[in-house]
Design brief:
elongated, 0% strand, 76% helix
Length: 139
């Protein structure tokens, strides 16, 4: 095979643009043993790829099934539910109490406003009383 062609294939290989057939050509060239001196650095790479391709993993991998403890999961779920209900009720009761307080403040405000109108009219009653006293004393 022509050396110039191999150099072009190596460039394509390093750019990851080679086809499978071109990679097989490169692998055959570097495994035959008669490699140009300036390309010897690639020999180790292609030798490793051919050896690694044949390796297999023979050791047994122990697979232990995971036990899920659903008892604790259900206990935790119940605890969260009870906690939510307890504090949810407190929150709801607090909001209701705040609403009642606001309504009571409004009612007292209206009562105070109407009482103030009534006390304004008492001033006229006092003037009437003074005038009546003046009339009866002079007679």
């Amino acid at each position: 095979m022509e050396l110039h062609n191999i150099e072009k294939l190596i460039e394509k290989y390093l750019e990851a643009t080679t086809t499978v057939a071109e990679e097989e050509t490169l692998k055959a060239y570097f495994l035959k043993g008669d490699v140009a001196p300036h390309l010897k650095e690639y020999t180790a790479m292609f030798t490793y790829f051919s050896i690694a391709k044949e390796e297999t993993f023979t050791k047994q991998v122990p697979l232990k099934p995971r036990k899920r403890n659903y008892k604790w999961l259900s206990v935790a779920a119940v605890a969260v539910l009870v906690f939510g209900i307890y504090y949810g009720n407190d929150y709801r009761e607090q909001k209701e109490a705040e609403y009642v307080l606001q309504q009571t403040k409004k009612a007292f405000g209206l009562i105070a406003q109407n009482l103030n109108k009534g006390t304004e009219k008492l001033v006229y009653l006092n003037k009437f009383e003074e005038t009546k006293n003046k009339i009866y004393k002079t007679n």
